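Researcher: Structure prediction, please.
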Amino acid sequence: MQIWVDADACPGVIKDILYRAADRAQVNLILVANKALRTPASPRIRIVQVAQGADVADKHIENAIEAGDLVITADVPLAAAVVEKDAFALNPRGEFYSRENVRELLDLRNFIDNLRSSGVQTGGPGAFSQSDRQAFANQLDRFLARQKR
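Model: Predicted structure follows.
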C-alpha cells in the first residue's frame, strides 16, 4: 500500500500530517504535482513532477495506483476513478469517498459546474479549518491502523 497525493491543491498542513505519518507508519508517500515541491528528507517521500495542464497529475495518479492504495484528493472525478480501481480516496477535510457516495458527489459537482457556466455565482468551499485538519488526521490514523492488521 502506498499513499498518493494530488499535491497541487493539497493544503500544506495536510502535507505536513502526511509526511509525519509516512515515516511513522513506514509507508511510501508519493506527491504528484505540476510544480516543484519541497519535502522533508525521507526515504519514504517521493515527488513526481508532471507537465502543466488540466488533469495531468490526476491522470498520472489514476494510471499508477493499485488496489489498496490510498489517494488524498479533493478532486471528485479522480476520487471516482480511484474507487473504481478498488483503491481508497480521502479528501483533505477527512471524508472518505466510497462507491456509495462518489456518484452523488460527482453529480453535484457537475450540477454546480453547469450553474457556474451559465453565470450563476455559486461560491466555493468554506475556509479550511482546524476541525478539518483534525478530522483528516483522525481518519488517516484510523486507516493506517487498519492496514497494519
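Model: The mean pLDDT is 90.
Researcher: Thanks, that helps.
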